[in-house]
Amino acid sequence: MLIKRIISSILLILFVAGIVFVKELSGLAVIAFIVVGLYEFFTMLEKKGIMVYKYFGIGIGAIIPISIMQGFELTKNWELLFILLAVLSLILMQFNRRQNSGTIVEISTTLFGVLYISWFFSFMIKVRYLERGMGFFLAILLIAKLGDIGAYLIGSRFGRTPLFPRISPKKSVEGAIGGLCFSIGGALISRPFLQVPAWQLALLGLILGILAQAGDLSESLMKRDCEVKDSGNIFPGMGGVLDVIDSLLFVAPVFYFYVNSILR
User: Fold this and answer.
1) Model confidence, pTM
2) What pLDDT was estimated at residue 92?
3) What gap in Å lies between CA 252 and CA 119, rounded to an integer?
4) Which of 8, 42, 137, 233 stands the most exposed, by the fewest C-beta atoms within 10 Å?
């Protein structure tokens, strides 16, 4: 398992190295991850017996990052119209059903998937398309993914105290602390990209490290509810796309707002 995980990690690193220099390729990669991540999420729900509008949700989820790449930023008015049309479409599709039970659950879970995966992860495109966006993009990956690596390495070697055994039995307090230390280290390494004082980088690494672990635990909670080990099997030793991007889902929006409010 460790060998498979290392090979998958190396391939992912090479993939990122190949697309990060061209913002359009970075955007397309994010869209691909969103589409596959949504497919995995909706498939997990179907295994649990929750019926969702899988392909409608994937379609709506793809429109969001595509609109960002095309420079069509939703204003408040357009955002409300977009949400209204999505909800209205889901309700209209319910008219063709032969029974009424499950209507609220199906609509809610479909919209939640779009919000949780598509909207949150689309901030990676917003970050990449900023001035100095390549450096910001790399900083997010360093902070979040080094946190993942640190939590895995320290937890595997020194983990003794369960963190949240009900949610993820293998995660430990020692691993969580190790992950935070690695996230802070990732933020300090990112100083050439962010150009802020070391104390601010350390604080940023701590905050984003906590958010990265919260994203990981959130997905673990959903997998536990759906009674699956991994969201998919695209990356041997690591799981599916959702298993790879879960730590970025909360980090990307917060980092984007940090850049806009403090660094610009």
Assistant:
1) 0.91
2) 79
3) 10
4) 233
Q: What is the pLDDT of residues 14-46, one digit of tens each?
A: 999 899 999 999 999 999 999 999 999 999 999
42-99: pLDDT as tens digits: 999 998 888 888 999 999 999 889 988 887 765 555 666 777 777 788 777 776 666 6
Distance CA 202, CA 183 (A): 9
Q: What is the DSSP string of 212-234?
A: HHHHHHHHHHHHHHHT-S-S--S
Task: Please provide residue 16's backbone torsions phi and psi, each rounded to the nearest 5 degrees.
Answer: -65, -40
In 8-134, the DSSP E strands lie at: none
* Residues sharing a CB contact under 8 Å with residue 34, sequence separation 6 or more, in sequence order: 61, 62, 64, 65, 117, 118, 121, 122
Reduced to 3 states, what is the DSSP secondary structure of residue 172? strand
Number of domains observed in the structure of the chain: 1
Residue 61's domain comprises 2-263
Q: Residue 93: exposed, middle, or buried by beta-carbon count in 10 A (0-12, 13-18, 19+)? A: middle
Smallest Cα–Cα separation from 86: which of 111, 64, 105? 111
3-state secondary structure of 74: coil
